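Entry type: protein chain
Record version: 2
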Amino acid sequence: MAMRLVVRPSPIHSVGVYTAAPIRKGTRIIEYDGPRITAEEADRRYEGAARTYLYGIGDGKVVIDGEGMAAYMNHSCDPNCEVDEIKDRVWIFAMRDIAAGEELLWDYNLYDDEDPAPCHCGSPKCRGTMYSEDWIRKLKRRAARKNKNGGKPKSGHGTAEREKANLPIKVKTPSYAAGPNG
């Protein structure tokens, strides 16, 4: 049975994806799909872009250039959905029962950038950014080392670090935070 989803204006950002019918916890809702490209190709294509709809699969060497409805799902620090990678496919699942009319939201957990990615989710649990808590800690450690080393960073960041991390890729603005949250 096809999931009844609609894209419409969102108070979080631009547009979002809403369910027209109740969804039970654990339900596979929609696939985050699109052409697969390399991280280097994504960097080249979207250099300077304000918004992107990218998702790094596995080790981040392959990136989904998001198309379709899932790319319009907004970020929240208190999401009702989560992402799971199954056999090189990216699926969105319900983390809890979701009522008809509710916006479908997931935590982008962005990383691999230092540009601002403010969060506008409005949740009492909002951390103020779409970056992951791990990435925020890493940036703080990097800043502390830089201050300790007289302003010189210890190491660079980019594709090599992105490939070492096993998190969704952020190429510019939320890969699909690019979606409406960009």
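Comment: The chain has a mean pLDDT of 83.
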